[in-house]
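Researcher: Can you fold this with pyridoxal-5'-phosphate in place?
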Amino acid sequence: MLGDGLFETLRAHGGKPEFLKLHFARLLRSARRLRIRVPVDEAALRKIIATLCRKNKALDVAVRITLTRGRYFGGLSIDPAVPPTLIITATPVSELPPKILTQGVKVAISSINKAAASGLDPRVKSINYLANIFAKAEGDARDCYEAILLGARGEIAELSTSSFFGVFLENGHAVAVTPSIDTGILPGITRQVLLRELKRAKLPYREGEIFPADIPRMTEAFLCSSVRGPVPITRIEKQKVGTGKPGPVFAKLKDLYVKACAQEIAA
Ligand SMILES: Cc1ncc(COP(=O)(O)O)c(C=O)c1O
């Protein structure tokens, strides 16, 4: 009723969720901050997802786990006696159109500053997505796939439903840079997995600040989310990113990500 809840979206294949451990840890952190009791543990959640997919004969799905404060009896006081409501849904997803991966996408820079617009703790994946909805509306109006939200100092924070990475040539190395959590972003699970893969592969990366003024120096950019994985960005507003084509850092990370997902499913 009042945006008083949280959610997680993750992908599952054949009833097996990808990176459930990481999603469940974020769900617990969000719930702790919102003071909502979590009525299931990770193992129970894994079973529910398997059953949901089996009963719906769903092979490749986006699973949404929504946890709210429960039935609304009026007023704003938190009543610990009211049980939380847990809703889990599975929606079929298909692979991204190949054109998106081979040509990349164009994104907009929205006028929305997430922190100022929502007043919410950005680390909580709250069910209030109004700031993101209006950022996306700005992107849609300019025929863009997604829209960037800026942080308090005008730095690139994240996109309406994804995390951001830019690639910069530093001392002769292509360094993958992603805004740090302090920028006021949602700690994306895909971002976390990509950082882990970069570390394991000993590829240069850092968390830091990226400003729109840095776009001309970017050799590549990409966004990422649990349902889509990494997606190359080849245009930001009217500016071409790098050569205007998806680059080698994206290709390497996409490959590492696909392998990491396959390991999750095989486990
Ligand atoms: C605002 C925002 N940032 C980042 C992400 C990516 O997060 P994840 O990788 O956990 O899906 C999402 C996903 O919905 C999002 O809504």
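Model: Folded with pyridoxal-5'-phosphate in place. The two ends are 38 Å apart (CA to CA).
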